[in-house]
Structures are given as C-alpha cells and as structure tokens.
Amino acid sequence: MSFKKFCPKCGKETDKLVGNECLDCFLKKTKLFTIKSQKILVCKHCNKAIIKGHWEDLSENLIEGEVASKVKLNTDFNLEDYKVLVELQKMGADEYEALVKIKGFISGNLLEQEKIVWVSLKGTLCDSCMKLDAEYREAIIQLRGKDKEESEQMLKITLDLLNKEKAKDSLSGTSKIVELKTGFDLWIGSKKAAVKVSRYVAKLYSVKLKVSSKLIGEEKSGKRKYRFTFCVKL
Ligand SMILES: [Zn+2]
Ligand SMILES: [Zn+2]
C-alpha cells in the first residue's frame, strides 16, 4: 500500500511534485524561460538575412533557429535534457508569429511551457549587394535651384537631413549624386526617407513638391515595383 500525495496548494492528488507543489501550480507562477519579439534584417535584393553577423539565405528554418537561439532559460532551476521548439506562422508579408515551446526535466518531472512572440523582417541591403549595386535606388530627389549656388545650398540641406534619417535606416543615404546643369539628382535607397526629406525641403523653400513614378518591374509576388521621383523646383 502506498501513501497518496496531494498538492498542498490546489489539493490535487499527484506523485509529481516540484518542491512541494504540483507541476501545474509550479508552472503557474514560474517562467522556465524568457524570449522577446525578434527583428531580422533581410536584404531587399538577394533575400539573405543577417544572422549572428553572417548573411544567410532566408528560410523558415533559419528564422526558427534564430528565435530558438534567443531563448534565455531561467537559471533559478536546473532544467535538464531540455528541448526548444519553434513553430512559425506567417501573419503578413514581413511578419510571423512564433510559438516557442520548451520541454525539459526538473527533479525527474517532465515540464512544458510555451510563449508566443512576434518576428518581423526588416528590409535592408546586405554588404555585397550594397557594393555590387551602388546604384540601388527606390527614389530620386531632384533639387532644382534658380541658379547653381541655390542648388548647392539645397543639396547641403538635403544631405544633412538624409544623414539624420540614415542613423535610423541605412538605406536612407544617397547611393549617387548626379550633378546637372539644372541642379542635382540624389539617388536614395529608401522611398520613405525620400518622401520625408523632399517634403521638408519643399516646405522650407515654400514650393510644391512634384511627385512622379515609373514602373521598373515586378516583384516575385507579382506586385508592381515603381521608382518615385520627388522634385523640388524653385
Ligand atoms: Zn497544485
Ligand atoms: Zn543582398
């Protein structure tokens, strides 16, 4: 005859105790691990992702591995023979929901806990594409002063603004500055930055921003790709 054991917290009859409570009670107040939502940088050109300092072909396996590697175990317990499982679910073009599950043993009892985090993919350019394609551009800012001096002043202001944007997004820089008789063309890696900066410059000079676009191709998804031109003409 064996004695029955009860959890002193919830009264459930069980042999499986961690410390002096049942597994359910233990897991209710204990986090076996922590993990934050993740951001992964992906090259817009070659679809490689930067993982631990290296550019690798993007795949769901790669994302799962990256998420699993960011799990931090709670060091208050000695979780033995543990396994980390990650299941991804695509929620949008650049977003996944990741179900992170941990299984392991504490004092011989199998424990399991899970958490859901977000994984977002953020577009950038990898080093090699940046070098190979120095002419990469999503947008062009055209600066047209009344004379050369004015155009140069506009250029200075615009570059200052773009540099500030570059601190937030490396694609906000200029990949090329073309000098023309009528002014300057600036090639910008990020359309968002080009809109923001050209709008600001137009406002500064109290002129209307002229926007035009040109179809430059199609993405793999079939979505049409445009290149935008923002012209600030005095
Ligand atoms: Zn209990
Ligand atoms: Zn690339």
TrEMBL record:
InterPro entries: Nmd3, Nmd3_N. Residues 7-234 form the Nmd3 N-terminal domain. One of its GO terms (molecular function) is ribosomal large subunit binding. One of its GO terms (cellular component) is cytoplasm. This is Nmd3 N-terminal domain-containing protein. It comes from Candidatus Iainarchaeum sp.
